[in-house]
Structures are given as structure tokens and as C-alpha cells.
Design a protein that fits this description.
The structure holds 2 protein chains of 2 kinds.
Chain A lengths: L4 E5 L3 H12 L3 E6 L15 E2 L11 H11 L6 H20 L14 E3 L6 E4 L5 H18 L3 E5 L1 E8 L5 E8 L5 E5 L3 E3 L20 H8 L4 E2 L4 E8 L6 E2 L3 H4 L3 E5 L16 E2 L1 H5 L9 H14 L10 E4 L5 H19 L8 E10 L2 E2 L26 E3 L17 H22 L7 H19 L7 H15 L6 H18 L13 H25 L26 H14 L1 E8 L2 E8 L14
Parallel strand pairs in A: 1-2, 1-10, 2-6, 10-19
Antiparallel strand pairs in A: 3-5, 4-5, 7-8, 8-9, 11-18, 11-20, 12-13, 12-17, 14-15, 14-16, 16-17, 20-21
Helix pairs in contact in A: 1-4, 1-10, 2-3, 3-10, 5-14, 12-13, 12-14, 13-14
Chain B lengths: L10 E8 L8 E8 L6 H10 L27 E4 L2 E4 L12 E4 L6 E3 L2 E2 L2 H9 L20 H11 L6 H5 L12 H12 L7 H9 L12 H5 L6 H20 L5 H7 L3
Parallel strand pairs in B: 1-5
Antiparallel strand pairs in B: 1-2, 3-4, 3-5, 6-7
Helix pairs in contact in B: 3-5, 5-6, 5-8, 6-8
Classes of the chains: A alpha+beta, B alpha+beta.
Chain lengths: ~625, ~270
């Protein structure tokens, strides 16, 4: 293994933790990233990272974290990986502390924790309201340390185009393109980790960064990797609508006491501060007295949608509700959530410490992703360093972070994403090393690399010559509007069918696209034309998965197929309802698997083993 | 983009620097972008992507620029707007005089149009060893306790997004010279404040004494004026200057030589 190198694609938390694990094991790593790794989308995470450290004397425990996570995801998550993640969480938070993350502190100097959605415990460690930024920087610093030691080679402004395979179909490397010189090269690797994040840009305006097109995941799917649970798309309840994107307004705002409300009277035109408390409707607190404003995201999002779209009580008759922190002292807000207060101030032009914020749900996160596997070990956690962990269905190709399907089921709990990214890297890196030792195959012949490089060189040259009438960015905008309108909060089969028809039209129009730029220097349009095709294919996977799943579960809500409201507060006390729940459960508590065949996603379903926790009805009232 | 008229305004006038490579001549191109309430410089550049036609009606290529998060935490989209360095995402067109002039950073090698190569900033982080020397990623329990006061100071320093505003505004930083600028100096301060980081404080100070180090600061104080995260960069520079001076004295008095330390024995 003297010349052995590993490839990690993506420089966010999952990618960089994989790099650190590989380098720590003495391996050499090539990291590919469309942007300098320090600018990856993980910086956008705000609220914090979960771990049942129990420093608040509440009796919190990793088992309760497991239960909250599985229940929050309505029992669609892969259970052994969730258990492993929750048990590793306190150690991960301590590791980040040792790496120098500037976590907020208690008066005694210990790590401070706050409460997030879908739990009743103070389990979320945080660095102001820019926790993702601080976590990413900590990993970036450790990777730089390994870079100086010569173990890590960064390829920044390089885009991953696809895999290189040997005769047996094993992934033996990648083809990538330098986005500045447009050079295309093949890179051999013992194993490849895709840590390329989510597909938010498929939905046009979302809380995601502009690089989150899902192109790498889409390409891996087209090359034979199975994609799972694509229809589970998290729409965050609180975002700031904008022309270019929907800016996230952290769940930590509600964790620190922020209240969601609308005026009780339709068409009330008074300024919010002139509306007395008795004339404000705190609809989340009223309906969910136990969890209040901190119900899980899918629940809060549906309630806000209902208030605005069905009841017509949105502010000014439009989409929008108040998120109010004006009752909290500005000093407290600045100590704990200054980062997001400033975002609102800068982009909206009003001070949220004085005037309630106006927010509306925005597409945020994909629970689904590339299908990955785990080897259950003792304690029902993933077996340490087993080559199967985080492995996709393509041998030698791994996936970790938002791009994998495993940890969050039908709905992700706030502050679990930073955790799942880091945990996936912690077990993915060692899995790749084990795989390279056990694969027992000779190094792939050079011809495979040259052939794969040539295929891409020709493909990119073809795209460069495209001179049709269609603008790729306009197609992308239409794709985003289509997906946001029909494949987010409320879904009907009628609209989903039309969406799939429209996607076929968009694909057809893509074939008449104009590359807009023939330059051989930093030609970003050319790269985008290639990405757009992968986005369209992945959109098809998401829409078809949504069409075929005739139930409501977590973020996937189909009113035509929802269970009725139970007659009792605790649904387990309503035997009639429990029968309906059981029928639904047996039919649909399954992982959606999409594989690419004959230009279409072929959808099948797989039972979910439940060795850690037996599913039960999920309710928060 | 939905076009609304605010005070009769239907379009926003842009003058944007276009230059394919450093071997090509650069020039300005003008654009009239439909006005939308709340629009920022990036949303207008995106509109040009969807309709790459100049104000004179000539077809052109989409503008090349760097951006990512669009909420001022990733540090990508730094450009000169109307002659002042700032983040394009948080520059709302309602707050800018027209024509809005966009030019690339001048202190960094040009990639194309508004995109530049800022790798000198990441190299500077290597020079000052801007990291903690952790023993490993295995579970070793929590790190040292820290006061809320120290955390508040370090947190602000840790929000530096390597955006390059401070370097662009600094008269001492020039294209091709070695001065690392305020960002890396402030990062050295961050790690030297950390309880574990203190153990290797001298390594970072040594980095600050090398070529392009803190001694090259001309105290113009432009950096602190333009930092979008309001990081007290001049305070960091002053603090590091003091520490570097102290280290120099210790070295001059030979108190810091390994042999002297060994001779002094434990404690």
C-alpha cells in the first residue's frame, strides 16, 4: 500500500472528518471540493450539535437521544447507525471542544447546552448561532495540519464528475475537472467517499448554499448506486424569504424563547407591538403545550402552512408569521444567537430585537440520499472499522453526511445533522481503510483511468458545443419552482404526476440548451450544464418516490392518505386508531430504494430492521 | 425575477469588470437588471446568468464570480462594490448608488472577471500554525474549562471567514508581496488564548516573526474598518505585537533556549 491514496469528495464536516480519520491512520488523501473547503455549506448550520452529555442534571442519556431521533424520524432511520451516533455524541462534542471550538460556557466554565426541537432535554451544545461555522473551522484546521505533514492533498475548485470502475464494477477512482483551468483528470483511489451534501438547489430557492445541487449524488445514482428515501425533504419552519435564497432563521431562536404567532383577527393591519397579548394567537404553544414552539420541524412547518394557506391568517394575508424575540433582553440574544440576529438585520433591514421577525418555511435538508449500509456489531452499534459501514451499493464507493440516507428517517431533528456528518466521517474513514486491506485485489489497470478520463473529456467537449436556444439557469429556475410548488410541504398525487411530466419536458429542453460560454478558463456555465442534467435526474427520483408513497410520514405529507386524528390525546388509548396505524405501519415502514434503469428510477421497498427500538405512534400533543 | 417599481425604479444599472484571463485586456460591461425589492448584488448577478445580455443589447457570457452561502458566513463573495471592499451577498441594491460598479479584489491574482485566487490567506494560516495540536480523535473527555468572558472574546475571533476584506483594504498588502495581513495574525491570537493552544504559543509567534509577519503591519487600521464580522483586528495585531516583542526579549536574554530551560531544571 506504499502508493495507496484515498479520495474524499466534499470538504464539509463529513468529508473533513473522513480525511482526518484517514490521515490519522497514516493514509494519504486527496480531497476534492468545488469551493475552498473552509467555505463549504456546513458553515451555514446555526443552532448546535446534539449529545446527551447531561450536564444540566436532567437525567438525559444516549438512549433517550436514540429514542427522540428514531421517533422524530417516524421510524424510517437505520437503527444501528442512529444508536452508534447517539452513543458517540458526547465524545464527539468533547473532541470538538479539544479542537478549540468556541462553544458557549456555563458560569463554571463547562460546555453550555440548550434545548432543541423534538426533545424535552437540554442536549444541544452551541457556539453562538454559528455552530456549523465553528465546527467546520475546527476540522479545517486539523486537516491543514495534516496538509502541512504531507498526508493530505487538497484539490479546491475541482469538481467530481464520476467514478472509475474496474472490470468487476469496483470503484477504483474518480474523474474530476479543475473549474479554473478546465483540465480533466482521473485519480486512482483505494476507496472514494462522497461527502457532497444535499440537493437543495433542485428546489431553487432554499436555505442551501449555491453549490448544493446534488450533482455528485445524482451522478452516482446514474452510475448504479442506489438512492434511498429521496421523497423525504425537510422544509424548515423558519426561514427569511429572499430573491436569491431563503435564509435560515435558526431553531435556536425558539430554543432561546422565541415565540411564533399571528394576529387572531384576519387582516389586522396594526404594527405587531400594538397588538395586545390577548389578540395574538400562539398557535404552536396552544396546540402542543408540552413541546410548544419546539415541536419537530415537519410539525411546525405544517402548522405554519395551515395557518397561512388554509386559514388565511398569514401576515397581511400573505405567506408569513411572526417569530418574536422582542421580550428577550438584547444582551441575552447577543450572547446566544447574535449570528442570526445580524443575518436578519442585514438582509431585511429591521432589528429583530425590536420588531418581530417575519418568517415562512423554506426547503432545508434532504433526509434521503445515497443508500448506505452498516454492519451491526455488539451493542447494536455499527461494528468498528467494518468495511461495510457507510458503503454504497457500489463496491469501493462510500457516502457520508447529508448525501447519505441513513440517520434521519422521515424527518431530521434540529442539531442532529452536524452530529451525523461527523459520526459518518468517524466510521467512514476506518471503513475505507479496512475495505482497501480486505478487497484483496490488484491495483486497477491504467487503461480504466484513461478510458474514463476520455469519456468525460468528450462529454464536456460536447456540452461546450451546445448552442441551442435554452438558457440552463432558466431551466434550473423553473425546476426549482416546480419542485417547491409540488414536492415540499403538502403533496397530492395529481400534482406529483404532473411534476413528473414536466420534468420530462425540462429534460427535453436541456437537450436544446446553450452552454453560454466557450472559454477554457473558469467556465462555470459549462460545469453548470453538466450539473443540471444530474439535478433533473435526481428530481425525478424525489418526485417519483413521493408519488408512490401513499401515506403521511414525517416530512412526507399527503392529506389524501393521512390517518384521521385519534380520539384520545395519547393515540395508544384509541384502539380503532391503533388498528389503522398498524395497517399503515406494516405497509409503509420501509426504505424507498431507487435505482436507475432504462432512463427511469425503478422504485422498490426494503423492510427496516428494528433491533434497537420497536416503532410506536409518533405524536407530540 | 418579479419586477416591481419602487419610486419609478424598474431597473438597476450595473458596471461590471470583465476579464477572461490576465493575458486578456479587461473592460467594463454594463447591464440593466430588472429591479426587485430586497435584491442584493448576487441575486442580480444570477439574473444576468439567466439573461446574459448587456445594456446595449449585446449577448455576452455570464459573469464569473465566487459565492456560496449567501448569508455572510462562508466568506466567498468578496468584491469591490463602488470602490469599497465588501460581501456581495449582503450588499442590498437599495443601499447602493448607481451605477453599481463591481470590480475584483486587487490584492490577489485574478482568475476571471470577479473571481480571484485567495490561497495566500490559507498559506498564512499554515505559517502561524493556526490549529491546536490535539493528541488524536479518540475520546479523551472534555477539554479544559474556560470562562464565559474568554469564550466571548475567542468566539468573535473564531468567526473570521477568510473573506479577505482586511487584506484588500490594507495598504501594506500588495499583489505579490508576503504580508499575511490581519486575518492570520488574529487567528494566531485566537489559538494562543486557548488553554491548550497556549502550550504552543511560541510556535505561532515564531510564524508571526517570519517573512510577511506582524512586523510588516503599518498600523493604517483599515482592516478593522472593513471587517464584515466586526472582529477587533487591530486589538489582535497589538496583542500579537506585544507577545512577539516579549518572545524576542526572552530570546535575546537566552532565557528561552532549550539548554537554559534544561539547566534550570523542573519548575
Amino acid at each position: 500500500m506504499a502508493d495507496a491514496r484515498f479520495t474524499v469528495v466534499g470538504g464539509g464536516l463529513a468529508g473533513l472528518m473522513t480525511v482526518i480519520k484517514l490521515a490519522e491512520a497514516g493514509q494519504k488523501v486527496d480531497v476534492f471540493s468545488i469551493v475552498p473547503v473552509k467555505r463549504s455549506h456546513s458553515v451555514c448550520a446555526q443552532g448546535g450539535i446534539n449529545g446527551a452529555v447531561n450536564t444540566k442534571g436532567e437525567g438525559d442519556h444516549p438512549d433517550i437521544h436514540v429514542k427522540d431521533t428514531l421517533r422524530g424520524g417516524d421510524f424510517l432511520a437505520e437503527q444501528t447507525s442512529v444508536k452508534g451516533m447517539c452513543y458517540a455524541a458526547p465524545g464527539i462534542i468533547y473532541l470538538l471542544d479539544r479542537m478549540g471550538v468556541t462553544f458557549n460556557r456555563t458560569p463554571e466554565g463547562l460546555l453550555d447546552f440548550r434545548r432543541f426541537g423534538g426533545t424535552l432535554y437540554n442536549r444541544t451544545a452551541f457556539a453562538g448561532a454559528t455552530t456549523g461555522q465553528q465546527l467546520l473551522y475546527a476540522l479545517d484546521e486539523q486537516v491543514r495540519r495534516y496538509e502541512v505533514q504531507g498526508l493530505v492533498q487538497k484539490y479546491e475548485y475541482w469538481e467530481w464528475l464520476g467514478t472509475v470502475r474496474d472490470e468487476g464494477g469496483r470503484c477504483v477512482g474518480s474523474v474530476a475537472m479543475d473549474l479554473n483551468t478546465m483540465e480533466i483528470r482521473a485519480f486512482p483511489a483505494e476507496a472514494v467517499m462522497l461527502a457532497t451534501g444535499g440537493p437543495g438547489i433542485i428546489f431553487g430557492r432554499s436555505t442551501n448554499s449555491v453549490i448544493n445541487t446534488g450533482t455528485a449524488a445524482g451522478r452516482a445514482y446514474l452510475e448504479g448506486a442506489t438512492y434511498a428515501n429521496g421523497e423525504f425533504v425537510q422544509v424548515h419552519p423558519t426561514s427569511i424569504p429572499g430573491e436569491d435564497k431563503l435564509r435560515l432563521m435558526s431553531e435556536s431562536v425558539r430554543a432561546e424563547g422565541g415565540r411564533v404567532w399571528v394576529p387572531k383577527k384576519k387582516g389586522d393591519t396594526r404594527a405587531p407591538k400594538d397588538i395586545p397579548e390577548s389578540e395574538r394567537w400562539h398557535f404552536l404553544e396552544e396546540k402542543y403545550p408540552k413541546y410548544g414552539n419546539l415541536v419537530p420541524r415537519d410539525v411546525a412547518t405544517r402548522e405554519i402552512f395551515h395557518v397561512c394557506r388554509d386559514l388565511g391568517l398569514g401576515l397581511g394575508g400573505k405567506d408569513g408569521v411572526y417569530l418574536d424575540v422582542t421580550h428577550i433582553p438584547a444582551k441575552v440574544l447577543d450572547a446566544k444567537i447574535k449570528g442570526v440576529m445580524e443575518i436578519y438585520e442585514k438582509f431585511v433591514g429591521e432589528d429583530p430585537r425590536v420588531t418581530p421577525m417575519v418568517i415562512f418555511p423554506g426547503m432545508h435538508y434532504s433526509m434521503g440520499g445515497l443508500y448506505v449500509q452498516f454492519q451491526p456489531g455488539k451493542n447494536l452499534e455499527p461494528e468498528p472499522a467494518h468495511p461495510k459501514n457507510q458503503a454504497t451499493t457500489v463496491p469501493g464507493l462510500y457516502a457520508g453526511g447529508e448525501v447519505d440516507h441513513a440517520y434521519h428517517g422521515a424527518n431530521r431533528l434540529g442539531a442532529n445533522s452536524l452530529l451525523s456528518c461527523i459520526y459518518a466521517g468517524m466510521i467512514g474513514g476506518p471503513a475505507m481503510v479496512s475495505y482497501s486491506k480486505s478487497s484483496g485485489q490488484k491495483a486497477a489497470a491504467p487503461k480504466h483511468f484513461e478510458a474514463a478520463r476520455k469519456v468525460w473529456q468528450e462529454r464536456i467537449e460536447q456540452l461546450r458545443k451546445m448552442e441551442g436556444p435554452e438558457n440552463p439557469y432558466r431551466i434550473a429556475r423553473e425546476l426549482g419552482e416546480l419542485m417547491t410548488e409540488n414536492v415540499t410541504v403538502v403533496r397530492t398525487n395529481d400534482k406529483l404526476r404532473k411534476t413528473i411530466e414536466k420534468l420530462a419536458e425540462l429534460k427535453d429542453r436541456w437537450k436544446r440548451v446553450n452552454a453560454l460560454d466557450s472559454s477554457n478558463n473558469a467556465n462555470r456555465s459549462l460545469s453548470f450544464v453538466n450539473q443540471l442534467w444530474n439535478m433533473l435526474e435526481l428530481a425525478h427520483v424525489i418526485a417519483k418516490g413521493a408519488l408512490l408513497r401513499d401515506e403521511s410520514r414525517g416530512a412526507h405529507y399527503k392529506p389524501d392518505f393521512s390517518l384521521p386524528e385519534p380520539k384520545t390525546n395519547d393515540p395508544r388509548e384509541d384502539p380503532e386508531w391503533m388498528k389503522l396505524w398498524q395497517i399503515r405501519h406494516e405497509k409503509w415502514a420501509k426504505t424507498t430504494l431507487a435505482s436507475y434503469k432504462e432512463g427511469e428510477p425503478q422504485i422498490s421497498y426494503e423492510d427496516i430492521p428494528t433491533p434497537v427500538l420497536q416503532p410506536e405512534p409518533r405524536w407530540y400533543a | 425575477m418579479e419586477t416591481r417599481t419602487a419610486g419609478g425604479r424598474t431597473h438597476v444599472h450595473f458596471k461590471i469588470w470583465r476579464q477572461e484571463t490576465t493575458d486578456h485586456e479587461g473592460r467594463f460591461e454594463e447591464f440593466k437588471v430588472p429591479y426587485a425589492k430586497g435584491a442584493n448584488v448576487i441575486s442580480c448577478l444570477m439574473e444576468i446568468q439567466r439573461n446574459p445580455v448587456t445594456a446595449e443589447g449585446k449577448r455576452t457570457t455570464p459573469v464569473v464570480w465566487d459565492s456560496n452561502c449567501l448569508e455572510e458566513v462562508c466568506g466567498s463573495c468578496t468584491v469591490n462594490i463602488n470602490g469599497r471592499v465588501r460581501m456581495a451577498c449582503s450588499s442590498l441594491v437599495d443601499h447602493l448608488a448607481e451605477p453599481i460598479v463591481l470590480e475584483p479584489l486587487q490584492k490577489f491574482p485574478l482568475v476571471r472577471d470577479l473571481a480571484v485566487d485567495r490561497s495566500r490567506m490559507f498559506d498564512a494560516l499554515k505559517q502561524v500554525t493556526a490549529w491546536l495540536n490535539i493528541d488524536g480523535t479518540h475520546d479523551l473527555g472534555p477539554g479544559p474549562r474556560q470562562s464565559q468572558g474568554d469564550q466571548a472574546v475567542m468566539y468573535v475571533l473564531s468567526t473570521c471567514m477568510t473573506c479577505a476584506c482586511c487584506l484588500e483594504a490594507c495598504p501594506q498588502v500588495q499583489l505579490g508581496n508576503a504580508f499575511m495581513g490581519a486575518a492570520a495574525i488574529s487567528q494566531a491570537r485566537l489559538f494562543n488564548m486557548n488553554p491548550s493552544g497556549k502550550m504552543n504559543a511560541d510556535d505561532r509567534l515564531s510564524g508571526l516573526m517570519e517573512r510577511g509577519g506582524v512586523q510588516d503591519c503599518g498600523k493604517a487600521q483599515n482592516c478593522v474598518e472593513v471587517c464584515p464580522k466586526e472582529i477587533p483586528l487591530t486589538t489582535s495585531i497589538a496583542a500579537m505585537n506585544r507577545e512577539v516583542t516579549k518572545l524576542l526579549f526572552r530570546r535575546i536574554l537566552s532565557l528561552d533556549l532549550p539548554s537554559a530551560r534544561a539547566a534550570a531544571g523542573p519548575g
